[in-house]
Design goal:
The protein has 204 residues and is an alpha/beta fold. Helix content is 43%, strand content 19%.
Length: 204
């Protein structure tokens, strides 16, 4: 099926940890643009009417688990991918580490999306949407992304990287929880298989 070849794909990405300071994990939500409104509503419907920004590190872990379990049950898993990626690079300037981690996450996430959602090798017109911070607005980040895009054909589908405040996007808030979910594996509360089965989160 080649339905994703020319249709816009949105890849929302946030992080848990700090580049250059601690271990870094990225969380992502990947979906066709036409499906993101439905996913946003599925998530928002699980929240209290008065809920403001969902920021995982400030919330109770059990609340987050229950929230993501309800979200998984309410949204069709066949139309989107949730991915948690541990960043392998640890040395260097923080904006470079952040850029490399983002690139790793994008490549692995798009491969999963091709295989499990599109069922096709063809993918194009991808927009990356990230939570704006001091690392992804740094000129070294920009230079590293540009260099990788010019050298790695796997990044050819990426047409634009947008930086926004996660407070304005429930989809980025889902990505934040997905990034944070690595904590449950680190603390041995869950393993990768349980995270995938119960919450639909792929760990890579």
């Amino acid at each position: 099926m080649a339905k994703g070849k020319n249709k816009k794909i949105l890849f929302f990405i946030d992080e848990f940890g700090t580049a250059g300071v601690s271990d870094l994990y990225f969380g992502g939500v990947i979906a066709l643009a036409k499906d993101t409104g439905r996913l946003d509503k599925c998530f928002s419907d699980q929240l209290e009417a008065s809920a403001n920004e969902i920021h995982a590190v400030n919330m109770d872990d059990q609340y987050l688990k229950d929230l993501m379990r309800r979200f998984k049950q309410s949204a069709s898993q066949e139309h989107f991918i949730l991915i948690n990626r541990a960043v392998s690079i640890r040395q260097g300037a923080a904006p470079i580490i952040y850029a490399q981690g983002l690139i790793e996450t994008v490549k692995v996430g798009l491969k999963l999306f091709r295989e499990e959602v599109l069922k096709s090798e063809h993918i194009n017109n991808v927009e990356i949407i990230i939570d704006i911070n001091q690392h992804n607005t740094h000129r070294d980040f920009e230079s590293e992304i540009s260099r990788e895009q010019s050298e790695d054909r796997k990044l050819n589908p990426v047409k634009h990287i947008a930086r926004i405040d996660s407070a304005a996007s429930r989809m980025l808030q889902i990505a934040d929880i997905v990034a944070y979910s690595r904590k449950f594996i680190i603390n041995r509360e869950l393993n990768a298989e349980q995270l995938k089965r119960d919450y639909g989160i792929h760990t890579k």
